[in-house]
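Example record

One chain of 314 residues, shown exactly as stored in the release files.
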Amino acid sequence: MRTLFNADTPEQAERLIDEAVRGGAELIFTTTPPLLDTALRSALKHPKVRFYNCSACQPLSSVISYYCRTYEGKFITGLIAGALAENDLVGYVGSYPILGVPASINAFALGVSMTNPRAKVLLEWSCVEHDCVEKLRAKGAAVISERDVPLPGANYTQQGQYGTFLVDAHGELLPLASPVWMWGNLYERIIRSVLSGASEKKEQAVNYWWGMDSGVIDVALSRLVPSGVRALAELMMDRLRQGSFDVFSLGLTAQDGSAISDGANRLSTLEVLRMDKLAQTVVGSIPEYKDILPMSRALVRALGIHRERIPPED
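Predicted structure tokens for this chain:
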């Protein structure tokens, strides 16, 4: 297996893919959503090569998508946040209004409500506002959820940029927990699937969209999580690993009073992926395209939940 770096522009990415093909690669993973378009172009150039893109995109004939059900990990961190938010205010930093992200916000909100029915989730977006954490601190958030830890085993939560944090009396962020992507397990499972001859199911919203029951996502807990809260978190993680619990089986009501999930019927993968309403306990909204920072617009244009409403580029 060979790893190539510095695919910072579409041109650089395409050159690296061509290099990999010349080197005999038969499977190529493009590891971020912005590389989807490059993967599509390269798949046309190299029809005998299998291309995979790490994104929650809908199935394509030439590029296979793979992603993790991060909303399961967000649910666990949400229940920890709710239990520790003594003032009933929890902050959440959303990334981009793209496929699957509102589901993670809502799953987090469900976790918060499980341990603290009075709590509100204050939502800010990093694709709109650079200083989201400072803004949430100013609003009085007692616990704040930031971006997820990208790799297991590294001490990312200590950096103050990853995971869910308790805000102490001095305004310092104390790490509590974070979803963790188990990349080795994910790639091993995909490669084993290919070698076994299993075919990807094109009718699914994402070809590979695995969760905690597949061992491709976990939740790291810090020593600061109280024992009772830790016990509840570990119990729910065990149920998710066993496949005996579905986050949205709890039922979910939107801000406008409509039902996102009635709790009786399991949501399909596509319904979770395309979720575009926020839970009624969330204070905030999904940003309009015009309000998104220029550097984030390409991704939202490609994978945004409301991308069909985005006007064409000039």
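Notes: Residues 196 and 208 are 15 Å apart (CA to CA).
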